[in-house]
Amino acid sequence: MGSTAEEFLVASEHKAFDMDHRRIINYNMGKYDAAVGRGLSRLTNLDNAKRKGHVIKWKVMENLDKFLPEFESNFLKRGGKVIWANDAEEANREILNIIKKAGAKTVVKSKSMVTEEIHLNEFLESNHIESLETDLGEYIVQLLGQRPYHIVTPAMHLSKQDIAKLFNERFGTPLDATPEQLTLKARELLREKYIQADIGITGANFLIADTGSIAVSENEGNARLSVTFPKIHIAVVGIEKMIPSVADLDLFWPMLATHGTGQNLTVYNTILSGPRQPNETDGPEEMYVVLLDNGRTNLLAQKEQRQGLYCIRCGACLNACPVYKNIGGHTYETTYSGPIGSIITPHMRGMEEFKHLSYASSLCGKCTEVCPVKIDIHKMLLLNRRDAVKDHIVTKKEQWGWAIWQKGMLSRKLTDFFSGKTKNYLLKTFFKSTWGHLREMPKVAEKSFSKMWQERNQSNL
């Protein structure tokens, strides 16, 4: 077991028994469940909508080599510039080149999981560029020096008291400040930053091939401010975010909003198709789209598992997962946590280091059930486990253990060779640590059903 896996087990146990963490998460998840339940009840023929979304994303992934150049061509026609980045290092380097060329010193960012993935904030700060998160949840975790806890709600692990205490320490607001007062304070602090910023950086929820546009969904309007005030806008987007047509937003916008927060539609939905045109009154003078691979083509090459790239980042599987609800988002040590992170991270960041995430599941199937594009998530978890074994990314102890188990289970004579008492002793001696010191070992019956059946039938003769 590698160090990442060992750290995961230690952190998981700590979080699972942190009662304060559990209280906050259960409260926030409860509010989410109620809102999403109401939202889904408004949709007619939900299963059909999910199937349609699945088919569209299947079409995109099977023809990504055609859709990406189509997007690029249409975006270039509007005066935009496209940068292809193979990995995080290349993406960061290209972004820094744009910033240096413009002589910029300050950047405002609107929530983007892809920029978290490439650790852009840390990279810019190491190059003496101020990079400020403007979405409230992201701003809060940035002040705390933490990573986002959740794909959609970055500060889900914090209570309003935690945030009030943070604002009191940093900005002198009252300890009993209401959420509304804290939001107003954040708005007051951030408004000046938009005006001063040289560059705005965002992600994108969708890349639209037929119009060469990006679509951004948000609830606070910070992305709009981040692309309107600064002279340069840089959008960093994973190549899997592609959809064929602007008409497909008719399906994806409501499905994203309903599964993400329970809303009919996200408050602000913006389509950006390049820099400001001669007949337009606002917008950036330059616009760049950084198309990021960073391991995505590794997953695309896996025919059985490439549907992991269909994800629209709604966060529904995280909120449904019993494991995530107990151990939280930071435990995974990945940008994308929860079930979706468990199936894509081993391919994007290496099976050897992250295969353990595919075992961090009860395989209850709830993640698959709630997915708005019908990704067969719990099947992908099993396929990752299979691949780890097939590629011999398992310990010798594990290999021998399963080989002996398989041999024993395929032979009734070997299964019954040891008595129940001996089996219980072996379980307690050799499996106590792997089963978990906080759980009791299962008790094996003294006699097998087969043995009891033989004895009963013999006595009847």
What does this structure look like?
- There is one protein chain.
- The protein has 461 residues and is an alpha/beta fold.
- Among the domains are: 43-294, NagB/RpiA/CoA transferase-like (Rossmann fold); 398-460, no CATH class.
- The chain is built from 24 helices and ten strands.
- The protein has helices spanning 3-16, 19-41, 46-62, 64-77, 88-102, 113-117, 120-126, 136-144, 160-171, 179-196, 222-228, 249-260, 296-300, 316-320, 322-327, 338-349, 351-354, 366-370, 377-390, 396-409, 412-415, 420-430, 432-435, 449-460; strands at residues 81-85, 106-109, 130-133, 199-202, 206-208, 213-218, 232-238, 242-243, 268-272, 286-292.
- Strand 5 (206-208) and strand 6 form a beta hairpin.
- The mean pLDDT is 93.
> How confident is the prediction overall: mean pLDDT?
93
* SS elements, strand count: 10
Helical fraction equals 40-55%
- CATH architecture of the domain at 43-294, by name, is 3-Layer(aba) Sandwich
* First-residue to last-residue Cα separation: 54 Å
Q: Unreliable stretches, pLDDT < 50, 5 or more residues? A: none
- How big a fraction of the residues is strand? 5-15%
CATH topology of the domain at 43-294: Rossmann fold
The CATH homologous superfamily of the domain at 43-294 is termed NagB/RpiA/CoA transferase-like
The chain-level structural class is alpha/beta
Global outline: globular
